[in-house]
Amino acid sequence: MTRVAVFCGRSLRRNLEEAAGHGLAYMFFPTLGARPRVPTLKGFEGALVELGRATRGQALRALRAALPRKAVGSLSLRPNADDLRRSSRLGFDFHLGSWRSGDPPPRQVLAHLKAFRSREAAASRRIEVGRHLKKTTQRLAILTDIVKTANSILEPRKVIELIMAKIQQLIPSEAWSMLMVDEEKQELAFELALGEKGKDVSSFRIKIGEGIAGWVAQSGQPTIVNDASKDPRFEDKFDTKTQFRTRSILAAPLISRGRTIGVVEIINKLQGKFTPSDLDILLTLVEPCAIAIENAILFQRTEQLTITDDLTKLFNSRYLNVYIGREIKRCKRHGIPLSVIFLDLDGFKGINDAFGHLAGSRTLSEVGGILAEAVRESDILARYGGDEFVVVLPETPASGALVIAERIRKSIEAHVFLKEQGLAARISASVGIASYPDHALTPEGLIQKADQAMYRVKERDKNGIEVAV
């Protein structure tokens, strides 16, 4: 039964009471005045209003508020062209006449209500399509922008930060992270973790196949988990360590050239569950950007090869000269010192002669590791050539360089080389130190002065340290 609210006087009411039936039921209310008070109209499919001289737009607006997205028509006892024009001008959805008892027929009223519903449904579809097109256009604009920008950046970290910033915008959640695959160790390492516990998890590593992220890395498939506690793949050990509660997870693989290079995880969506639409957004972003990330990583590795020594993985002499030149400019601006340690291995030729070239290469590699352990994070290590090494110590005078040089000398002297090869070789180091601005003002001058100081140690008795003069 279709229920319709009618606001009219007695004459119209008598006509309509005779017209009720055939699936149509009326409920009558007094006419609406200048300050209309509309009753609660829950359950009504529409309304009819007697169009009188006192009918104003306020009445229609009040009814629209009480009957959202429902038809509101007007009625006249003696309809004419003026009534039709006035009804249209006020904004009613249709106008009907009631000449006599039983007018308008129920089928006519029901037809107008049905036509209105059809128009409303079509309008809703148009609005929904419009919203969808607008959202799609926005996503395509974001995607175009992010892909264009990502492909112009050659630093992996910046590409990842750009992508994650967009994901934060589009899928509001409590935490977001990107993990990269370490193929050698078969693990996932957090490259970027955002959210309340981001710093706490940044040092964690996940085995391929472990947890949701590990499963995604292993299978190469995305997944939606809206109740982590019930998913057998979920590992709660990280929640235990960080005091964080993972409720839901959206995860997708980063696939470049057919190979999974990482995983993007989004944790605990705000306001509801993760949906296939969220996954579509995520895949739309990560699929093209995976290639941009790998390109940036490959470029960085290629660039790294041009400035590093293949054997020791330390910087090479070409980068060393560029770096010292840059640091000297900074020293001039700020009035700060800079020191250089130049060391040459004592007895290295004997290892080569006794055990062969491969043993010598292994020894140089071990020296690189000793140097890395002995210096500070801010210091720069380089293999200068052969068995010669250079350490650059920013913001360090000669007195500070002496402390570090002695630590290096003792570490080399105490180390037993080639143990993994079943051998036991020992060597020492002769070390020279030069500082800016006390001993030289150029990169070449500093290295030369430190080299000369080192040779004085060699000529004396080796295994010692000397400062340039």
Overview of this protein structure:
By secondary structure, the chain is of the alpha/beta class. It starts with a strand and ends with a strand. It folds into 3 domains: 2-120, Response regulator (Rossmann fold, 3-Layer(aba) Sandwich); 153-300, GAF domain (Beta-Lactamase); 317-467, Alpha-Beta Plaits. The relative contact order is 0.06. It has helices at 10-19, 57-66, 81-90, 106-152, 156-170, 198-201, 211-219, 237-242, 276-307, 317-334, 348-355, 357-374, 398-414, 443-460, and strands at residues 2-7, 24-29, 46-50, 71-76, 95-97, 173-182, 187-195, 205-207, 223-225, 249-256, 259-269, 338-346, 380-385, 388-394, 428-436, 465-467. The protein contains 14 helices and 16 strands. The strands form 3 sheets. The chain has a 6-stranded antiparallel beta sheet, with helices on both faces. A 5-stranded parallel beta sheet has the order 2-1-3-4-5, with helices on both faces. A 5-stranded mixed beta sheet has the order 13-14-12-15-16, sandwiched between helices. The longest helix has 47 residues, at 106-152.
CATH top level of the largest domain is Alpha Beta
Count, helices: 14
Give the amount of beta strand, in percent: 15-25%
- Any idea how many domains? 3
Strand tally is 16
CATH superfamily of the largest domain, please? Reverse transcriptase/Diguanylate cyclase domain
- End-to-end Cα distance, whole Å, is 108 Å
Q: What is the string of helix and strand elements?
A: EHEEHEHEHHEEHEHEHEEHHEHHEEHEHE
Mean pLDDT, rounded to whole units? 84
| Structural category | alpha/beta
Low-pLDDT stretches: none
- Helical coverage, percent range: 40-55%
Characterize the largest beta sheet: strand count, sense, and whether it forms a barrel: 6 strands, antiparallel
The CATH architecture of the largest domain is: 2-Layer Sandwich
Q: Which value, in Å, is the CA radius of gyration?
A: 40 Å
CATH topology of the largest domain: Alpha-Beta Plaits
- Please tell me what the overall shape is: rod-shaped
Side by side, the strands of the main sheet go 8-7-6-11-10-9
